[in-house]
Design goal:
The chain is built from 5 helices and no strands. The chain is an all-alpha fold.
Amino acid sequence: MSSQPVHDGGELIPRPDTTFPALRAALARVAPSRLAEMTTERDTVFTMATQSNSFGPIAMFQLKWAAIIEIERRPDLARRLHSAERTAQDLPRDAPAWQAAMDEIKAVMNLARAEITGATDE
């Protein structure tokens, strides 16, 4: 029996706010294996922000993780991304399919960021 939830292909969870607690809670639901990575990165980013006296690193952290969650909460986007990642890992960099996979990864990431920021072309 699978431990993955059964769903109708729609969003797994609603889009969370971009606060750290909301992002962490959402990630725990859609990609719990990445929580340690997020926490480690958060600690690094907050140290950088303090040292530079800038909120820029924190804003970039929030956008990055909001985009990751946007992808993982939408099975259609997650399938596209993970398929392209597998292809890119399995092929030499000079293969045309490798470049196509990298273009797909970029397209999915750009779509997710646009959804988060409201900068869609629709």
